[in-house]
Amino acid sequence: xxxxxxxxxxxxxxxxxxxxxxxxxxxxxxxxxxxxxxxxxxxxxxxxxxxxxxxxxxxxxxxxxxxxxxxxxxxxxxxxxxxxxxxxxxxxxxxxxxxxxxxxxxxxxxxxxxxxxxxxxxxxxxxxxxxxxxxxxxxxxxxxxxxxxxxxxxxxxxxxxxxxxxxxxxxxxxxxxxxxxxxxxxxxxxxxxxxxxxxxxxxxxxxxxxxxxxxxxxxxxxxxxxxxxxxxxxxxxxxxxxxxxxxxxxxxxxxxxxxxxxxxxxxxxxxxxxxxxxxxxxxxxxxxxxxxxxxxxxxxxxxxxxxxxxxxxxxxxxxxxxxxxxxxxxxxxxxxxxxxxxxxxxxxxxxxxxxxxxxxxxxxxxxxxxxxxxxxxxxxxxxxxxxxxxxxxxxxxxxxxxxxxxxxxxxxxxxxxxxxxxxxxxxxxxxxxxxxxxxxxxxxxxxxxxxxxxxxxxxxxxxxxxxxxxxxxxxxxxxxxxxxxxxxxxxxxxxxxxxx
Length: 500
Prior knowledge:
500 residues, mainly alpha, 3 domains, two-stranded antiparallel sheet, 2 strands, 2% strand, elongated
């Protein structure tokens, strides 16, 4: 026997294709009405008209399950909600109108909710999940469950592949030329993408009012446990949206894309083949470094999700080698980014931000290697986080001991046109911003510019700052070493400027 044990479940009524077809036609008509009322137009009375149309369409689509008395109350609530929007459309009247539509729909189509908490919970679920229902329901109309699963399996690989192609196009002019050959403008001339997106948005918004589904209580057998049916997103979950099949497809596509980028870098960066017309190595290097680092970070995030502990792909003998290959390509990508930045620094000199970029790229490469170590050694994500924190701590500690001011000044001077005969002229103004540690380099610049009195006066102010740094309260080992260097250079060059 069955007992009248009431359990809270999600009772999704079966969808009959014939009924659903009529509802789909109604939704398309409402989308067409929204296009006529809203697209490219100022919104005012049109919103009230559209809300009234939604209410009428909802009444017509769900008339078989309506209670006349409750429907009449719902109609009165909609009328009250329309009044402020007709008077003046603003934020408050808009919220009142939406609330009136939702409350009226709840009263008319869901008589089982009686308490305030139940009604609030039903409205919350309607608002959060209602707009997700249109596309799964439309696929169910055409009985395309296998097609839906195929979409779920290929959706993430194709979306991420598109993102990677966009990043590669930003970093590589050759790939950009290949992408430009697709010429999407030809398609856009005949299809208005914003308008298509507008229709899709309207369909997702009006569909919950046309095809109404609420959480309901139903009679269950004794000793039955709560059985929660899936939300609209379950189609994608059951299709293994993040399963081993999806991950395998993703890794195959990603490895092919990254191989193409790596081959091009091997040709142009490492092989020094002539670049396309109107493209210099400096521009190529500067343009490519940061998009490629963004690509590597996105790749690392995907690997962490795909190879999560206990996930379907973690123990796969097919997926693991592809992951190792892809991470290896990402490490090569980071190496190419470092080379690109190095080429750019060779021409446009060194700065703090460029040093930070070198360090950051090295940390990214190390992080990728640690990801491989986590997978190979079967460690947890906690181990990976701790290893990265330790690496970051060591790097920051070492960086705190490095005299970057002096290093940048010396590097820029050595590679400037004044000293090496190639490159750009030394930027004395930038050297001055580095502080007293740039004094040795500034002295050499002044020696090559004997008539630059302004630079000499600014250099003297740095000397005064250096003397203040030698006071015992402000003393530091770095300032002391700098003073010894200045004194040694002054003794070795008797004709140089005195320090006083």
